[in-house]
């Protein structure tokens, strides 16, 4: 049974707290769509697939999977060190070290790495909201 932000979470949170769903959705969309269209030294790059892979990988780490997404993209686009970093920050933020931060994407700018952090933290927040809102939905029905 799919329980997605777009189809279920957004409307429930708006029903419980008017306008909060819109604010959260805008926050998720701003971070998800943020791009300079660069990757390391390359300009004019469409990063949408990478951003989607990071978002869906974070959700996958928390047990949320989407039938309409090809998870092969995650393995193609996210190198092992990046996956380790994402999982550490999302699941065990207290274990995040400068060493694992510097081990992924060595040639990338810090601003690009900061964007990764923003993506994974917002995806994590959305995943937590989905679990909480699903529990509320079950309680209400």
From TrEMBL:
Q: Which InterPro entries match?
A: Sestrin (IPR006730)
One of the entry's Gene Ontology molecular-function terms is: oxidoreductase activity, acting on peroxide as acceptor
For this entry, list what GO says about its biological process.
cellular response to L-leucine; cellular response to leucine starvation; negative regulation of TORC1 signaling; positive regulation of macroautophagy; regulation of response to reactive oxygen species
Q: Listed GO cellular component terms?
A: nucleus
**Any Pfam family hit:** PA26
The protein's name in its UniProt record:
SESN2 protein
Q: Which organism is it from?
A: Cettia cetti
Q: What's the name of its gene?
A: Sesn2_0
